[in-house]
Specification:
The complex is a heterodimer of chains A (237) and B (289).
Chain A lengths: L5 E6 L16 H14 L3 E7 L26 E5 L2 E4 L2 E5 L8 E3 L12 E5 L9 H8 L8 E5 L12 H10 L4 H9 L8 E7 L2 H10 L14 E7 L1
Parallel strand pairs in A: 1-2, 1-3, 3-7, 7-8
Antiparallel strand pairs in A: 4-5, 5-6, 8-9, 9-10
Helix pairs in contact in A: 1-3, 3-4
Chain B lengths: L2 E4 L12 E5 L6 H10 L8 E4 L3 E6 L2 E6 L5 E5 L16 H14 L8 E15 L8 E13 L2 E4 L4 E6 L5 E7 L3 E7 L6 H11 L6 E4 L3 E5 L9 E2 L1 E10 L9 E9 L24
Parallel strand pairs in B: 1-13, 9-14
Antiparallel strand pairs in B: 2-12, 2-15, 3-4, 4-5, 5-6, 6-11, 7-8, 8-9, 8-10, 10-11, 13-16, 14-16, 16-17
The chains are: A alpha/beta (237), B mainly beta (289).
Chain lengths: 237, 289
């Protein structure tokens, strides 16, 4: 048995000509809604599912930077975002199909976990560009403000029918109470597509961050991260 | 139309004998998963068995054996050790040594005949830490995974299936394995002739014509294509497999890209299409501001 947690997902497959244009994607709905529905099938609470033009950049931007995160991404425990991503100047960027109010979300405007978010999946490219500790720290120590763990990819990921069950597989294992980092690394690593996932855990101390990295499940939702003094990560390459 | 660049291409069809093979039933059942657990010498006294829509599982303490209904794929994990950091492990093993040890484990557990696979790649699971005052906990490799690729009649099997993956801890002991390996039932038809690689390139251009930006075709491989854990598949047939990198329009130093793969059935008498048709656009009702 697991303790029910609140889940929100956003995804984008379809972009438009104009200032927010990106190449279209095909399987982001399968990933995000697969996660959403399979978490739901394990008794977790499905709070919101915004796709394409309904996914807004303000949903993840903190109010200190003019956003509305506290009512959306940071108003659920588990937020899964599936789309395009890019990383430059040690800042993670995510692309939106409409400018509400920016085309690109920028991690220097995020304060993840400042209200409710415990776990963030960035199912898109380039959560980090490499596995250098300084780089991982410089990208993620700032945005992680109470969030327990962030899950993403080293460099590019794939949008393909060969990995379209990633979200549902991860949702099944995460939703049934398995250790989250292992679930992500298991399903996001691809022997056939060369996707390299990473899981990053925060903690006030080194041992807390390591403990979360190794053992944290959705059942740990009521053990807050009091300070992001340490990050502990785990990746497969 | 996107700008398409073929970085690595095949000039001519490979001169290899291939066939269109009928795959057998996945054979997944509660009995089959129990028998596999017995062959692994797992303690059955306190074991439990369960199933859901996609899989059968056998659980004996920390040992979990899974059989997927769609494919018959097998998975074993010792959940007390698989991908778990004991706080000390720091695995230093060459790819060659890891492959040798993995082959020993494959043989010991009779997972596949040695002549039916080749090394795909060796992966490593790494842990690390860093702190606000720039302390570093250091990085350690805590497991090694060795992936083998199925070979049928000398032709490699591409795609999510046809894979045998062995995970080992720092002592070289087995912590888990995956086997996606559908049984071949019979030859459905010989391949009369292979289409030229140019036909695969033309198919790719048609399929991705709606895109903008730039598509880099990173490679063109030839092999059979086997699908993943959940898919039901009745035919194994040769194909051209093209990994892609799709780069969105944008500034050079702030580019957004993603990767994908295009697959084209290679036989002139191919059974159906391999690549699913482009998905229909799903639009939700407009969200209230």
């Amino acid at each position: 048995m697991t303790i029910p947690v609140c889940v929100g997902v956003e995804w984008i497959n379809t972009f438009h000509a104009g200032s927010c244009n990106q190449n279209n994607l095909s399987y982001r709905d399968d990933h995000a809604e697969g996660f959403y529905n399979h978490m739901g099938s394990h008794g977790h609470l499905k709070i919101f599912d915004w796709g394409n033009d309904n996914a807004w950049e303000t949903d993840i931007r903190h109010p200190d930077s003019g956003g509305d995160a506290l009512n959306w991404s940071d108003n659920v425990d588990f937020y899964y975002f599936s789309d395009h991503g890019g990383n430059w100047s040690s800042i993670m960027h995510i692309a939106f199909a409409v400018s509400h109010t920016h085309c690109l979300g920028s991690s220097d405007t995020w304060k993840l976990g400042s209200r409710m978010m415990k776990w963030l999946v960035l199912d898109c490219c380039q959560a980090v560009l490499n596995t250098n500790g300084d780089h991982i720290w410089s990208v993620w120590s700032g945005p992680m403000r109470g969030v327990h763990m962030v899950f993403g990819f080293i460099m590019d990921g794939h949008d393909s029918w060969w990995n379209s069950s990633l979200g549902s597989d991860f949702g099944d294992d995460a939703g049934s109470g398995h250790a989250l980092a292992n679930c992500w690394l298991d399903h996001a690593y691809s022997w056939w597509l060369d996707d390299n996932p990473i899981a990053i855990a925060a903690g006030a101390t080194q041992s807390e961050a390591i403990n979360r990295r190794e053992y944290e499940s959705v059942n740990w939702f009521s053990w807050p991260v009091s300070a992001t003094n340490w990050l502990a990560w785990k990746y497969r390459t | 139309m996107p700008e398409v660049t073929f970085i690595k291409r095949l000039e001519t069809a490979p001169r290899v004998k291939t066939q269109i093979l009928a795959l057998g039933s996945p054979g997944a059942s509660a009995k089959a998963v129990r028998e596999l657990a017995e062959s692994l010498k797992l303690e059955a006294a306190n074991a439990t068995q369960a199933q859901d829509a996609t899989r059968f599982t056998f659980t004996a303490g920390q040992h979990v054996v899974t059989m997927f209904k769609g494919s018959g794929a097998l998975r074993y994990q010792d959940r007390s050790r698989w991908q778990v950091d004991d706080g000390k492990a720091n695995l230093k093993i060459s790819d060659g040594e890891a492959e040798k040890r993995a082959r020993e484990l494959v043989s010991a557990h009779k997972l596949a005949p040695a002549r039916e696979f080749k090394l795909l790649k060796v992966s490593r699971l790494t842990v690390g830490e860093a702190s606000v005052d720039r302390q570093r906990g250091g990085e350690r490799v805590i497991d090694v995974g060795v992936g083998f690729q199925r070979v049928v009649g000398g032709v490699p099997v591409d795609g999510p299936g046809g894979k045998l993956i062995v995970y080992m801890d720092h002592n070289g002991e087995l912590t888990g394995f995956d086997r996606i390996w559908r049984p071949v039932a019979k030859v459905r038809a010989p391949v009369k002739e292979l289409r030229p690689p140019k036909a695969a390139e033309e198919d790719l251009l048609r399929y991705w014509a709606r895109e903008t930006g730039r598509i880099e075709v990173l490679d063109m491989r030839f092999g059979y294509v086997e699908l993943g854990y959940h898919a039901r598949q009745t035919v194994l047939q040769p194909a051209y497999v093209m990994p892609l990198r799709i780069v969105s329009p944008g500034q050079e130093d702030e580019q957004i890209a993603i990767r994908s793969v295009h697959v084209f059935a290679a036989a002139t008498n191919a059974v159906g299409r391999l690549m699913p048709p482009p998905k229909k656009i799903v639009q939700q009702p407009p969200r209230a501001a």
